Amino acid sequence: MTVLTELKDKETIEAKNYINKVFETVKQRNPNESEFHQVVKEMFDSLVPVFAKHPVYMEQSILERIVEPERVITFRVPWVDDQGKVHVNRGFRVQFNSAIGPYKGGLRFHPSVNASIIKFLGFEQIFKNALTGQPIGGGKGGSDFDPKGKSDGEIMKFTQSFMLELFRHIGPDVDVPAGDIGVGRREIGYMFGQYKRIRGGYEAGILTGKGLEYGGSLTRTEATGYGTVYFVQEMLKEKGLSFTGSTVVVSGSGNVSTYAIEKALQLGAKVVACSDSDGYIYDPNGISLDTVKRLKEVERNRILEYVKEHPHAQYFEGCSGIWSIPCDIALPCATQNEIDESAAEMLVANGVKAIGEGANMPSTSEAINVFLRNNILFGPAKAANAGGVAVSALEMAQNSSRLSWTFEEVDAKLQHIMINIYRNSVKAAEDYGYSGNLIAGANIAGFKKAADAMIAQGVI
Questions:
Q1: CATH for 223-379, among 3.40.50.1000, 3.40.50.720, 3.40.50.10540, 3.10.20.70?
Q2: Contact between 227 and 414 (Cβ < 8 Å)
Q3: Is the terminal CB of the chain with fewer CB neighbours within 10 Å at N or C?
């Protein structure tokens, strides 16, 4: 063994020991927060060669600093339903890291929301936002409020109450929330109106995902779904593959899923399945996007209704079975951890060639190992679903300059950003011994950008 090899081994061991020590501290300080532990572990696993090569990150205690949110806000949200009954929900905002720019990340309204979920999403957002190349830091928020079955009036009352506390902590140069699961243009509109009423002024840049009538950006609705497909398209090109003629399965039927389906269809694919939280539909002739859009966006109905208009299609209760449908490309766009190890094994057995994560970390670590072990092209959420926040940053830029760009202009910028994210992830993977592993590549590229900004600003 040469002296150089011994030196490298020593540096690697030191880096592993440091990272393991920090991870143990994370678990002790954040007990019972399994989702947060999962995302931190997934990031840390990629960083050993980075710390071995750049010990300055250990000297500056970057990991200890970056895993600790700059601010965690929890608050009560009381509201009154249509029958006059008072309800109380819990609101959250985690302002995780502002080294690159103001905190940026969505608001999620869903019964599953808790501190662990919000910290998991906020931590992931730091590096996703860094990958976009836009000047935005990482944050996330939301509430355990369930918008399903609520009237427009109840939604308005809740969101107005939510904003009565949130307004104290946000601003165009401080923290700019957006939508996420359960928070669409309607909810953003109600919150924007309440913020404007409280502040007594028009600050268009305090929320993104707004309606076009009051400062929203063209292409924002489509951005996450389109961006996921643009990223997967780049992966496929490397192997001489494409969406043209491919069979695609997309989980979910919300905003991300709908526009992932739309772009995949535009590129010549046949999408045969999609889902909602109750079950999934399989249409061997190819999903009718017009029907899905009308059911989900206009009528706010369940996906079950699809088979009433398309009797040749089939509906199945439960969501996990959707991954048993043979496909060339799978786009999980519903929620976290929806593909487990057994679902991944089914996909591989049925000949899947590529996975593009449209949701936030929809594959478990065990599922990811199955894909990597079988050399399946894998686009991780941190990179593949960054299109939404990228266009949110473009919306902020338009608000700041009081301009409105065309759909084509924003879409071209989105494509450019997604291609750059892919290329930067590929290069980072190659530079640190993970050639072909886009999970490690995206983790490293995002981490280095945030960490270097932190070092440049001193101990903050």
A1: 3.40.50.720
A2: yes
A3: N
Report the alpha-carbon angle 428-365-19, nearest 5: 60
Residue 270 is assigned to a ligand binding site? no
Task: Decide which of 277 and 425 is more confident.
Answer: 425
Every domain of the chain with CATH number 3.40.50.10860 lies at 71-203
Q: Is residue 179 part of an annotated ligand binding site?
A: yes
Tell whether 382 is in a known binding site: no
Nearest in space to 259 (alpha carbons), one of 282, 238, 228: 228
H or E stretch including 409? helix 407-431
71-203 CATH fold: Rossmann fold (3.40.50)
413 is catalytic: no
d(CA 206, CA 61): 32
Q: pLDDT tens digit string along 304-346? A: 999 999 999 999 999 999 999 999 999 999 988 899 999 999 9
Considering the chain, what percentage of its residues have pLDDT values greater than 90?
Answer: 93
Q: Is 250 helix (H, G, I), strand (E, B) or coil?
A: strand
Portions of the chain given CATH number 3.40.50.720: 223-379
pLDDT (mean) for 354-363: 94
How far apart are the C-alpha atoms of 401 and 199, rounded to whole Å? 21
Digit-coded pLDDT (tens) for 199-236: 999 999 999 999 999 999 999 999 999 999 999 999 99
Q: Integer distance in angstroms from the first to the last C-alpha of the chain? A: 42
275 annotated as a binding-site residue: no
Q: Which of 119, 140, 263, 296 is catalytic?
A: 140
